[in-house]
Design goal:
This protein is α/β, with parallel strands linked by helices. The protein has helices at about 15-30, 70-80, 100-105, 125-140, 150-160, 180-185, 205-215, 230-240, 255-265, 280-285, 295-300, 315-325, 330-345, 350-365, 370, and strands at about 1-5, 35-40, 50, 55-60, 90, 110-115, 145-150, 165, 195, 220-225, 245-250, 265-270, 290-295, 305-310. The strands form two sheets. It has an eight-stranded mixed sheet, sandwiched between helices. Strands 11-10-9-12-13-14 form a six-stranded parallel sheet, sandwiched between helices. Helix 10 (about 280-285) packs across helix 13 (about 330-345). The chain is globular and about 60 Å long.
Length: about 375
C-alpha cells in the first residue's frame, strides 16, 4: 500500500504522543514493504531530511500560532498528498476532520485517529472547544474509519455521535535502558528521584503535582520532564512557584527519556483529559511503579496496577507520595502487574497489525459507510 501519515509535527519523534505514534507506526509499516510518507513541520524536522528508517519525509511550512499551527500544516499536507499517488491516509487529530473531503476528492481512503476528548482541555477557550466538538461530529460523518485508542473515547463516540469506531490502542515501551549517562548529566541517581512526564499545559496538572510534592519532607527530588509551545505564561508561573527540590528538564526524547523512565523511583501521572496517555504506558511497559490521577481514561489503562490519587482532592497526592517514599518496595507488585498489562494490551507490533488490517479493508471495500460503523 501507498500510505500518507499526516496531522502530526513529524518524525523523528521529539515532541509528544502523536509524533511517537507516527514514528512507531510508519517505520513498522515501511518495514513490511509498504510505501509510507510522513508529513512534517519545518520547525520540527530539518528541511534537508528526506527519509527516516525507511519512511519518506515531506517537510512543509506552517504558521506557528496556537490556533493555526496544526490546520495550516494539515491543509498543505493534504494538498501535497493529493498529488502524491497515495492510496490511503492516516490522519491524526479530530480537529483535522474538515480536510477529509479533500483526501476523498483525490480518491484516497482516510482513517482518522481522533485522539482524546480535546474539548475538555483547559487550554482552549469557548471558540476552541466549540471547534473541537464540531470536528468530532465531522470526523464521525466524513472519515472512512474513525480510530480510537481508548475504550472510553470509543464509547463516547458511540453514545454522543452515534458513530462506531475501530479501536486500536497505543503502544508502550518495553525495554529498560541500561545506561545512566543522561542521569549523570542531570545530577540524578537511579531510584533516587520521582518522575513526572507530560506537556506542561493546565489540564495535565503539573502545578498541582508540584504543590502536593512541596508538602512532602524528602530529599528525593521531583523531576519534571516536558514543555509546551503555547503555554509560556503557565510554565513561567510553574517555575516561579516550584519547590527548590523540583528539577525541570524540558523535553527529553530517545535514550535520555528511556533512562529517566527506567530508573525513576516512581512515576506520577496527573492528566485529567484526553484518551490514552503515552507516558503512562511507557512507565508501565518499562516496569516502573505509577501513581495515577483517578479518571476513567487512566483507570482503563492502569486498572489494578497503580496507586490512584485525585488531583481535585488537596493533600491526596502528598499522602500517596509519603506512602511510597516510606517504603518504595510497596510498589514492586504493582509495577510487575503494570508491565504484564502493557505487554498484553499495548504492543506496537499489534498496533501496526491493527492499522495495516484496517487500511487493507478500507481499500478493498467500496462501501465506506461500513467502515465508519465497524468497531473492532
Amino acid at each position: 500500500m501507498r500510505i500518507a501519515l499526516l496531522g502530526t509535527r513529524g518524525i523523528p519523534a521529539s515532541y509528544g504522543g502523536f509524533e511517537t505514534f507516527a514514528e512507531e507506526l510508519a517505520t513498522r509499516l515501511a518495514a513490511r514493504g509498504h510505501e509510507v510518507t510522513v508529513y512534517c513541520r519545518a520547525h520540527h524536522t530539518p528541511r534537508a531530511l528526506r527519509a527516516h528508517r525507511g519512511v519518506r519525509l515531506v517537510v512543509l511550512p506552517t504558521i506557528r500560532r496556537k490556533h493555526l499551527d496544526t490546520p495550516v500544516h494539515t491543509l498543505l499536507s493534504v494538498l501535497h498528498a493529493a498529488a502524491g499517488g497515495h492510496q490511503a491516509v492516516v490522519m491524526c487529530n479530530a480537529a483535522n476532520a474538515v480536510f477529509v473531503p479533500l483526501c476523498r476528492l483525490a480518491g484516497q481512503r482516510v482513517a482518522l485517529n481522533v485522539d482524546g476528548l480535546e474539548w475538555k482541555r483547559r487550554k482552549w477557550g469557548v471558540a476552541g472547544r466549540w471547534c473541537y466538538l464540531l470536528s468530532e461530529r465531522l470526523a464521525a460523518v466524513l472519515a472512512d474509519a474513525v480510530v480510537t485508542d481508548s475504550r472510553v473515547v470509543e464509547e463516547y463516540y458511540r453514545t454522543r455521535h452515534r458513530a462506531g469506531s475501530s479501536f486500536i490502542p497505543y503502544g508502550a515501551a518495553e525495554q529498560k535502558a541500561a545506561g545512566t549517562a543522561s542521569l549523570e548529566r542531570l545530577g540524578l541517581q537511579p531510584r533516587r528521584y520521582l518522575l513526572y512526564v507530560s506537556r506542561l499545559e493546565p489540564e495535565n496538572n503539573a502545578d498541582r503535582v508540584v504543590r502536593e510534592y512541596a508538602q512532602v519532607r524528602t530529599e528525593v527530588p521531583l523531576v519534571v520532564v516536558g514543555d509546551a509551545p503555547y503555554a509560556r505564561a503557565f510554565i513561567e508561573r510553574l517555575h516561579a512557584t516550584a519547590d527548590p527540590r523540583v528539577r525541570f528538564t524540558g523535553y527529553q526524547f530517545g535514550e535520555p527519556y528511556r533512562e529517566l523512565m527506567s530508573h525513576a523511583l516512581a512515576c506520577v501521572h496527573a492528566t485529567e483529559a484526553g484518551g490514552t496517555h503515552p507516558a503512562l504506558l511507557d512507565a508501565m511497559g518499562i516496569g516502573n511503579g505509577v501513581l495515577v490521577n483517578d479518571v476513567a481514561e487512566n483507570r482503563e489503562v492502569a486498572q489494578d496496577a497503580a496507586v490512584y490519587f485525585r488531583c481535585d482532592r488537596p493533600g491526596d497526592l502528598a499522602e500517596k507520595l509519603k506512602w511510597v517514599l516510606d517504603d518504595p518496595e510497596r510498589l514492586a507488585p504493582l509495577a510487575e502487574r503494570a508491565r504484564a498489562r502493557a505487554r498484553a494490551a499495548y504492543r506496537w507490533e499489534a498496533v501496526a497489525d491493527g492499522y495495516e488490517g484496517l487500511l487493507r479493508r478500507m481499500l478493498e471495500s467500496r462501501a465506506t459507510a461500513s467502515w465508519r460503523n465497524a468497531a473492532s
